[in-house]
Each structure stands twice: as C-alpha cells, then as structure tokens.
Amino acid sequence: MIVTVIGLGTFGAKTATRLAEKGAEVIAIDKNAELVEKMKDRVTHAICLDVTDEKSVRSTNISEVDVAIVAIGDSTEMSILAVTMLRKMGVGKILARATNALHEHVLKEIGASETIKVEEDMGEIIATRIAAPHVLQRYDFAAGYSLVELKLGKKFEGKTLVESQIRQSYSLNIVALQKRVPYINEDGKSSFRVEVNDSPLPMDVIEADDIVVLVGSEKNFKKLFSDLDEG
After folding, report:
1. pLDDT of 83-113, one tens digit each?
2. Helix, strand, coil proportions of the chain in percent (round to 5)?
3. CB 212 within 8 Å of CB 141
4. Which of 47, 69, 72 is nearest to 59 (CA)?
5. E strands within 73-223?
C-alpha cells in the first residue's frame, strides 16, 4: 500500500511513522523543511513542498497513491486547498483532518472520502481509558457497534471460551485471542513472542494476560465492563 501524509505536525508525523512501521510505503509531505528532515529516516520518502503548488505536487506522482491523508491542523484554508488539489489529481481515497463541524462539512463537500476529528477522537479515547481501563483499543464500525481489544483479567482466567459464557451472557463474539508465548531466543535467554489466534475454538483457554478481541453492541459491552469492574 502506498500512502501519502500531508502535514507533519504531531498528528501527521505520528500517523506517517506508524503506517511505515506497519509496512506501508509512506510519502510524507510538508512545506516546513525542519519537519521533513525529522521524518527522512522514518518513512519511504520525505518531501518538502507546498501542496498548493500543482506543478510541484504532480512531480511526486501523488496521483498513484492508494490513500492520501491530509493531516494539516493549523490552517483550514491550506487543508481545503490540499484536498481540492488531491481530488483534481484523481486521488481515489482522501482522509482529511477536520478541526470543527464547519471545516468537516466543507471537506466532505469538496471531495474528502472521510474526515478525521482528532480532538473528538482523543476525548473518546481518554474517556474510555477512565471509564473502562481494561480496554486497550476500540474501533467503532457501525452505529452502536464496536470491535474492542481488552484484557478480561482474573474474572475469566483459566476458563475455556465455552466456560466463559461470554456469548451467552453478553451477546458478544470473541473473534481473536492474542497470547504472549514464552520461548528461548538465539542467545539462550527466556523471552516472549506474540501469537494471534484469529480462529479461536470453544476449548481454547483464556489466560489473565491474553488480549481478547470482541465484537458487539455498545449496550452489551457496558454490561461486560460493569461486571469486570465489580470482579
């Protein structure tokens, strides 16, 4: 996958770095040479240019990327111009950071495939961490439904998936188990590797440190979280 990230402030730089770590070919762009210099060793290509300069942008072959992320947060005008330029050049999927409701509306009107509301998302993440500290990651994919990564802890330790009764009690489906498996490394020292079981069976056992991936409704997750807090 080829991704371009435009705007290398805190959000953009972090996004570009994580995408590169996950194996994407990342083109990082900003008009600030200092920010570009910091990214050179973290991404595939780091380019200093003004994304409103069509001739310069076309020289990067940006139209060939799979996804463009406009991460500009300090200038709504620059953000809007960048999305307009990307759409004009035929980029199929454009994700753009929106700083407020009006900005989000304009971005969608001019062709952004999806908007990213960093401040709102961070508020949701912080609230979740406080209200449900056992939750590691949460992905909302439909109204009222989420995919959640969490540790079930002592309450379900040592139980098989059947014995846990999670599906029967909470109407939540376990879609994966992530375990830390001990092994001896090349230096003869004890270490751990992460193994993901994406097709868990009824007799698989849940350990206290396992990361469990569940899918279900907000209402049913709240019931599970409440029981975990009490347990």
Report:
1. 999 998 888 899 999 988 899 999 999 999 9
2. 40, 30, 30
3. no
4. 47
5. 94-97, 114-116, 135-142, 145-150, 173-184, 190-197, 211-217
| Residue-by-residue DSSP string for 126-170 | HHHHHH-TTEEEEEEEETTEEEEEE--GGGGTT-BHHHHTHHHHH
Tell me the per-residue pLDDT of 172-226, one tens digit each, with 9 for 90 and over: 999 999 888 888 878 788 887 888 888 999 999 998 888 899 999 988 988 888 8
**What gap in Å lies between CA 137 and CA 124, rounded to an integer?**
11
Distance (Å, whole) CA 209 – CA 162: 18
Cα–Cα separations (whole angstroms), residue 207 to 98, 109, 177: 41, 48, 10
User: Which domains, from first to last, does the chain contain?
Assistant: 2-116 (3.40.50.720), 129-230 (3.30.70.1450)
Mean of all residue pLDDT scores within the chain: 86
